[in-house]
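2024-03-11 09:14:02 INFO worker-7 job=invfold-0412 stage=load source=structure_tokens
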């Protein structure tokens, strides 16, 4: 095959120049002091609308456009923003590489093909399909007669690269397509770019067969509110690009106005998904194309387009990821070996020596584009994702040292990629997520050898807690602490004890059964308490650990420790509880009500690991203390 003229050919030297970018004003400012009479593009209601915010386009930070909200349906729109010139070819080589390697969410793109009776589909049209990945999958993976109608430069590039049917024009109701109408018409992430959706929806309706259906995806205005993070807002309210941001209600109004009698719309993950038809149709927004078909498509396209390094990287990394997610470990090893061999040849780095993979990027004051291209010639933009899944594979195979090294290389790659993408005014959430997950996995794997380092790395990630995957973040804190203590290195991980105690106390307070990981952490807290001469504190943690174990042998270990501390602990604990109760009564008698309330609330707190023992000792007297929880 002929390599695309936009392909950035691999090189073996890395950029090392430094630079810094300065931003003066935040890109979005919330406003509520301006009103205008406007017609809503979604529900067609004319009303006085309140300005919601001012936002700057990604490439023009000094410009501001006002975003207004329709009160009846909640849809947002920029009445003064011009239609973006999508025909621009500026930096097309960089844009192509970014999109193919990381920008295109291929799995999400093909999902709509399975939402509405896919077994009845034989013809498929995508309107504004851009590069055309989903059209290519529909044709080669599903065997549909498929075409993309899109006049853009990127659409022509995709058709040339992938070889699918392409119509380089705009869809119009007055100009029917010769091969239409179609069983399925998809317009994904397009309608938000259109200032007036009515003519656009009329054109879409004209392309749908009487027994067919229209599928639309678009950003959800319901996710736009003051207090939402920049990361959440940026892909939705892109000023100068997105002109109308629909709510589910607004989109339903617009589709019904276009003549569709049956409309299903849901909001999920900051996106609206809609299926519209003139007849009843079964809709399942959770459906996905068959995974084996998808893997075969990725493998076939990787091999058929291997001559182009960007296309090979795009398909090869997605194949590795899909094989691992599907548990196809032999296929994942083959995909990994193919990728590692190719990148060793193209870029000169070796997955078997992850310590040597150290991408760097510094933005110079001048020649931004040259610096970005130099990085792009030396590294694939999806290197971070590839390293993460290579590490997952090595961990599955039991090579934990190599897995840790690959995770750390992934973290380094993510840091460099963040700088590059910021310089491009772009972002890749998957790259960011892989980097964060890799940091947590690396800390977990480091614990047996360097527990102090692992604990330090976990604490260093605490300020980023809101951005970390919650389940893995929880697991990492518990595992690093438990592994450190239970391997006899408790002092090294002691700084994590307060975090672990809080996590487990929350679960116990909700009366939730502990997982095995939580059980080991509870046992570790018990062990530390016992070694510190606090058997009363150790006993309930050992009890919780024993209850969480799945294996009889492990349960017996913690049962034995519980029995070892509980006889003496029971008497001592009973005395301590009685003393605490007597102190509260004395404080109340002396008129020190505030202090008595504090002590009582601490004593009856259900989150305490020894709460059951306190209930047993105090009996009916507990009710008298619990009134402090409601007292002023």
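2024-03-11 09:14:09 INFO worker-7 stage=emit residues=632
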């Amino acid at each position: 095959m002929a390599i695309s003229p936009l392909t950035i050919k691999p090189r073996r030297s890395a950029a090392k120049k430094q630079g810094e970018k300065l931003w003066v004003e935040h890109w979005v400012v919330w406003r509520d002091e301006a009103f205008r009479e406007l017609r809503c593009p979604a529900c067609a209601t004319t009303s006085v609308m309140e300005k919601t915010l001012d936002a700057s386009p990604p490439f023009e930070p000094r410009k501001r456009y006002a975003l207004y909200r329709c009160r009846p349906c909640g849809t947002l729109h920029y009445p003064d923003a011009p239609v973006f010139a999508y025909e621009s070819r500026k930096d097309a080589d960089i844009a192509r590489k970014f999109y193919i390697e990381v920008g295109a969410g291929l799995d999400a793109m093909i999902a709509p093909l399975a939402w509405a009776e896919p077994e009845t589909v034989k013809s498929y049209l995508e309107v504004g399909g851009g590069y055309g990945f989903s059209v290519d999958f529909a044709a080669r993976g599903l065997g549909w007669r498929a075409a993309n109608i899109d006049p853009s430069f990127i659409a022509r590039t995709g058709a040339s690269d992938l070889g699918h049917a392409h119509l380089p024009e705009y869809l119009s109701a007055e100009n029917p397509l010769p091969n239409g109408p179609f069983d399925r018409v998809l317009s994904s992430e397009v309608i938000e770019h259109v200032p007036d959706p009515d003519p656009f929806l009329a054109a879409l309706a004209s392309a749908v067969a009487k027994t067919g259906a229209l599928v639309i995806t678009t950003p959800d205005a319901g996710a736009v509110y003051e207090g939402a993070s920049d990361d959440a807002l940026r892909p939705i309210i892109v000023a100068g690009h997105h002109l109308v941001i629909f709510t589910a209600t607004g989109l339903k109004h617009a589709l019904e106005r276009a003549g569709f009698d049956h409309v299903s719309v849901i909001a999920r993950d900051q996106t609206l998904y809609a299926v519209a038809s003139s007849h009843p149709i079964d809709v399942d927004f959770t459906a996905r194309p068959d995974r084996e078909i998808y893997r075969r498509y990725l493998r076939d396209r990787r091999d058929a387009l291997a001559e182009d390094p960007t296309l090979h990287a795009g398909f090869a990394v997605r194949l590795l990821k899909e094989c691992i997610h599907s548990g196809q470990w032999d296929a994942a090893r083959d995909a990994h070996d193919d990728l590692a061999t190719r990148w060793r040849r193209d870029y000169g780095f070796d997955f078997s020596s992850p310590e040597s993979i150290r991408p760097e990027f510094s933005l110079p004051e001048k020649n931004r584009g040259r610096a970005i291209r130099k990085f792009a010639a030396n590294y694939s933009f999806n290197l971070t994702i590839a390293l993460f899944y290579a590490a997952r594979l090595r961990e599955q195979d039991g090579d934990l040292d190599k897995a840790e090294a690959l995770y750390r290389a992934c973290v380094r790659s993510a840091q460099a990629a963040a700088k590059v993408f910021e310089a491009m005014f772009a972002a890749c959430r998957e790259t960011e997520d892989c980097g964060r997950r890799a940091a947590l996995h690396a800390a977990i794997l480091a614990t047996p050898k360097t527990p102090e380092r692992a604990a330090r790395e976990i604490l260093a990630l605490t300020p980023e807690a809101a951005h970390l995957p919650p389940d893995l973040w929880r697991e990492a804190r518990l595992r690093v602490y438990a592994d450190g203590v239970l391997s006899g290195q408790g002092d090294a991980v002691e700084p994590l004890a307060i975090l672990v105690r809080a996590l487990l106390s929350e679960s116990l307070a909700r009366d939730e059964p502990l997982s095995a990981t939580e059980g080991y952490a509870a046992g570790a807290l018990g062990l530390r308490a016992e070694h510190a001469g606090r058997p009363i504190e150790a006993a309930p943690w050992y009890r919780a650990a024993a209850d969480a174990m799945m294996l009889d042998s492990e349960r017996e270990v913690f049962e034995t420790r519980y029995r070892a501390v509980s006889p003496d602990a029971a008497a001592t604990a009973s005395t301590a509880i009685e003393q605490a109760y007597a102190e509260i009564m004395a404080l109340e008698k002396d008129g020190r009500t505030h202090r008595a309330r504090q002590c009582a609330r601490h004593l009856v707190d259900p989150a305490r690991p020894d709460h059951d023992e306190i209930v047993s000792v105090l009996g009916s007297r507990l009710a008298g203390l619990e009134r402090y929880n409601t007292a002023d």
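2024-03-11 09:14:09 INFO worker-7 stage=report msg="The chain has 24 helices and 13 strands."
2024-03-11 09:14:10 INFO worker-7 job finished
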